[in-house]
Amino acid sequence: MRKVLLQILIFSVIFILIFNLTRFLMQLHFIPQDTDKIELLKMYAFGTFHDIRFLSAAFLPLLLCGFLSYFAPLLKIKGGGG
Q: Looking at the domain assignment, is residue 60 inside a domain?
C-alpha cells in the first residue's frame, strides 16, 4: 500500500508541475504583461486547485484497488475442483 501511495504522490506532483508550466507558458503568450499581479496569483491558485481536484478523482480507482490488498487474507478460496 505504501508503494501505491508513493506512486500517487509522485505522479500528482509531476502532473501539477506540468500543468503549472503550461499555465506559465500560456501566461507569457496570451495574457497582457500589464495584468495585475493579484489576478495572476488567483489564476495560478484556482488552476492548481482545479488540477488537484481532477487528479484526486483520476487516482481514486488506483487508491481503492490498493485497499483491496488488505482484504485478500479474509478470502478463503481453496483451489481444486469438486
A: yes
The pLDDT value recorded for residue 76 is 67
Rg of the chain over all Cα atoms, to the nearest angstrom: 21
Cα 47 to Cα 1, 11, 16, 53, 70: the distances in Å are: 29, 17, 10, 10, 35
pTM for the complete prediction?
A: 0.72
Give the residue-averaged pLDDT of 11-18.
94
User: Which range of residues forms the domain containing residue 29?
Assistant: 2-69
**What is the number of domains present in the chain?**
1
Neighbouring residues of 51: CB distance < 8 A, sequence distance ≥ 6? 15, 16, 19, 20
